[in-house]
Amino acid sequence: MKHQRFSPLAEAWILFFLLGVLMINYPFTHIFNKLTLVLGVPMMVLYFLLGWPLSIAVIYFFTRSLNHGDAESADHEDRDQGES
């Protein structure tokens, strides 16, 4: 029986998923569920309005860096095959 090992990419996606789940559950939502207003906006609303786009931006830059790394590795493979 073969054991499949997760690639670093799969491990990173699992980490992003777990962090996202953690950020929208009890410990964090309780911290920001206050009557305090920041610039007239409740902290909970501000938390979601800033946190959601920030998490999307992090995932965007992560996938963009992966695509950049794939392009570089393809260039190296092409050069290596050309030398043979």
Short description:
Keywords: Membrane, Transmembrane, Transmembrane helix. By secondary structure, this protein is mainly alpha-helical. It is 76% helix and 5% strand.
Q: Which features characterize this protein?
A:
2 strands, transmembrane, transmembrane helix, 76% helix, elongated, single chain, DUF3311 domain-containing protein, membrane
Assembly of the depicted chains: single chain
What strand order characterises the main sheet? 1-2
Number of strands: 2
Whole-number radius of gyration? 20 Å
Q: Main β-sheet, in a few words?
A: 2 strands, antiparallel
List the total number of helices.
Answer: 3
Strand content: under 5%
Mean pLDDT: 81
Q: Work out the count of structural domains.
A: 1
Give the N-to-C terminal Cα separation.
Answer: 36 Å
The H-and-E topology, N to C, reads as HHEEH
Describe this structure in words.
With 84 residues, the protein is mainly alpha-helical. It has one domain (17-83). The chain is 76% helix and 5% strand. The protein is built from 3 helices and 2 strands, in the order ααββα. The chain is elongated and about 60 Å long.
